Amino acid sequence: MNALNITDGGGSSSGLSLSVALGSHIDAGGKCFVPYLTGGLPGWQTGVAAAAEAGAQAVEIGIPFSDPVMDGPVIQASSQMALDGGATPVSILDEARSIDVGIPLAVMTYANLVYRFGYERFAHALVSSGISGAILPDIPLEEVGPWADAADGAGVETVMLAAPTADDDRLTRVVERARGFVYTVGLLGITGERESLAATAKVIARRVKALTDKPVLVGVGVSTPAQAVEVCEVADGVVVGSAIVRRIIETGSQEAGGELVAEFVTALARG
Length: 271
What we know:
Shape: globular
Order of helices and strands: HEHEHHEHHEHEHEHEHEHH
CATH architecture: Alpha-Beta Barrel
Strand content: 5-15%
Low-confidence stretches: 1-13, 190-194
Structural class: alpha/beta
Largest sheet: 8 strands, parallel, barrel
Number of helices: 12
Radius of gyration: 17 Å
């Protein structure tokens, strides 16, 4: 693993809060849209700018990892493309420093990578690069304390995942620990596009909404604008990755990903 080589000082997006940005949009009557983009793909910073211009409330940036247990084939393929192109966590965080889009950014990656950096070091590196939040899907609630404490200390919001199989006691503890928003997992399995919205998506969103006033977004299995509108009958918003990343890969254009973001944002605004 390469050592971090990031200078002190806040990145250009420092100070932007996921909870504030999403909460403000929800309070104004909106539904939130957060696209996932693979860091390290050619022009990925342009993709972030395109998503922001299209109306996204925040952007989730994937830091590629060699064993992505939550990612489906599209995200896995994009991560491998980024790794083959020489992307590293250091290079992605360095490149993130140049992004100034007026909305908060979060990273999604895996525990082994963060552990090898050191929790406090990684958390401060995120802040230095202008990153507001982090999603680490393979750290369970029972083991998240050391990372979450380091993140809290640095001012990084730890987004927690709420699984459809969790009982009410566990969901209560998940939402208490969550910062930024609660990422409700729409179905069991890996990320990827589906022809229809899983019934579990609205069920888990409704259960979590009953437990918290924090923003509740659904991800995994939300593939089309129509599905986003359907699940947002209950949820506060959605996270969509595979459909957008596939569009970028197929067209070779980060701007094309922004065009798809605009379709989702428009659909959610119309309801």
